[in-house]
């Protein structure tokens, strides 16, 4: 596979309707081709020294991309990376702020970046650009290494929610178990209401309050949680027999294993 094929496939991708099978097939092939490409290049941080750029130890740059999404930039040809850094004057002592990166290094970096708010990937091929998410590349790369993917497709929404909570003001809502005391609520030492070994976490406060009336509460009641308090509540509930978490959004529902959610939250809280 030559790098020019990635450019050709991105150009072809733009001709398809995003909901079509042709689009999905072409998109998956592009991600696979990138994973198999020997020469990949990425932008490095502005403070990188000339020496670190030359020996390829310079740290990878994350910046605000399309739609204000924190992103990483990727190129399959050095000439395009050089042109990009020249265009935006990304230089140190006339040396372009980019480096060659192995897919293994890139995968580890993107995996860690996922938990720090980075979700965008911009594959810049000059005339043709692909704007996508980091999750597909990380998962495809891990599968190529014969390892399990980090997230399922439907779980991408939840990772985005968690990052909105960690780096923004987003909150979620939980219906506490009916025996919960006021003190337990204050210190996040309560367990959520269980539905046959499943707990529900809501993105909409009104929906959570209405649901509470169906399960014995005399008045509408739910507790708001941020990224820290959500981890505290779930960690407190680790021995309560919970197996599954159901995230209830305005127009979607996503099921994840309790342990998987807890592990992600632990990582995002520095545990």
Q: What does this protein structure show overall?
A:
The chain contains 11 helices and 13 strands. By secondary structure, it is of the alpha+beta class. Strands 1, 2, 3, 6, 7 and 8 form a 6-stranded mixed sheet that branches. A 5-stranded mixed sheet has the order 11-9-10-12-13. The longest helix has 16 residues, at 21-36. The two termini are 41 Å apart. The mean pLDDT is 92.
How large is the radius of gyration? 22 Å
Report the order of strands and helices.
HHEHEEHEEEHEEHHEHEHEHEEH
Shape: elongated
In percent, how helical is the residue content? 40-55%
Low-confidence sequence ranges? none
Quick one: how many beta strands?
13
As for the number of domains, it is 2
Q: Could you describe the largest sheet, including whether it forms a barrel?
A: 6 strands, mixed
Q: What proportion of the residues form beta strands (DSSP E)?
A: 15-25%
Structural class: alpha+beta
- Distance from N terminus to C terminus (CA atoms, Å) equals 41 Å
Mean pLDDT: 92
DSSP helix count? 11
Describe this structure in a few short sentences.
It is built from 11 helices and 13 strands. It has 271 residues and is an alpha+beta fold. It folds into 2 domains: 148 residues, no CATH class; 113 residues, Trna Endonuclease, Chain: A, domain 1, CATH 3.40.1350.
Please specify the SSE layout and strand pairing.
Blueprint: H1 3-13, H2 21-36, E1 40-43, H3 50-54, E2 63-64, E3 70-75, H4 78-87, E4 91-92, E5 95-96, E6 98-101, H5 103-114, E7 120-125, E8 128-133, H6 134-144, H7 156-167, E9 172-174, H8 182-186, E10 198-202, H9 205-213, E11 223-225, H10 227-236, E12 244-248, E13 253-257, H11 258-268
Parallel strand pairs: 3-7, 10-12
Antiparallel strand pairs: 1-3, 1-6, 2-3, 4-5, 7-8, 9-10, 9-11, 12-13
Helix pairs in contact: 1-2, 2-6, 5-6, 10-11
């Amino acid at each position: 596979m030559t790098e020019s094929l990635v450019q050709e496939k991105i150009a072809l991708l733009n001709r398809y309707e995003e909901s079509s099978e042709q689009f999905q097939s072409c998109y998956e092939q592009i991600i696979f081709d990138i994973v198999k490409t020997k020469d990949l290049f990425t932008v490095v941080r502005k403070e990188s020294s000339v020496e670190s750029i030359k020996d390829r130890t310079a740290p990878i740059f994350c910046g605000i991309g399309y739609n204000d999404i924190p992103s990483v930039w990727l190129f399959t040809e050095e000439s395009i990376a050089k042109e990009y850094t020249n265009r935006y004057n990304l230089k140190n002592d006339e040396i372009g702020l980019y480096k060659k990166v192995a897919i293994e290094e890139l995968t580890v970096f993107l995996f860690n970046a996922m938990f720090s708010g980075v979700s965008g990937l911009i594959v810049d091929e000059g005339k043709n650009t692909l704007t996508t998410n980091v999750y597909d590349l990380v998962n495809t790369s891990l599968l190529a290494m014969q390892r399990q993917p980090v997230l399922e497709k439907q779980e991408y929404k939840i990772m985005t929610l968690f990052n909105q909570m960690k780096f923004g003001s987003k909150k979620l809502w939980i219906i506490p178990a009916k025996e919960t005391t006021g003190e337990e609520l204050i210190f996040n030492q309560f367990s959520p209401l269980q539905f046959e070994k499943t707990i529900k976490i809501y993105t909409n406060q009104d929906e959570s309050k209405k649901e509470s009336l169906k399960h014995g509460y005399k008045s509408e009641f739910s507790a708001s949680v941020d990224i820290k308090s959500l981890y505290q509540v779930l960690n407190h509930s680790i021995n309560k027999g919970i197996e599954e978490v159901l995230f209830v959004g305005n127009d979607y529902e996503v099921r994840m294993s309790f342990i998987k959610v807890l592990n992600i939250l632990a990582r995002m809280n520095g545990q």
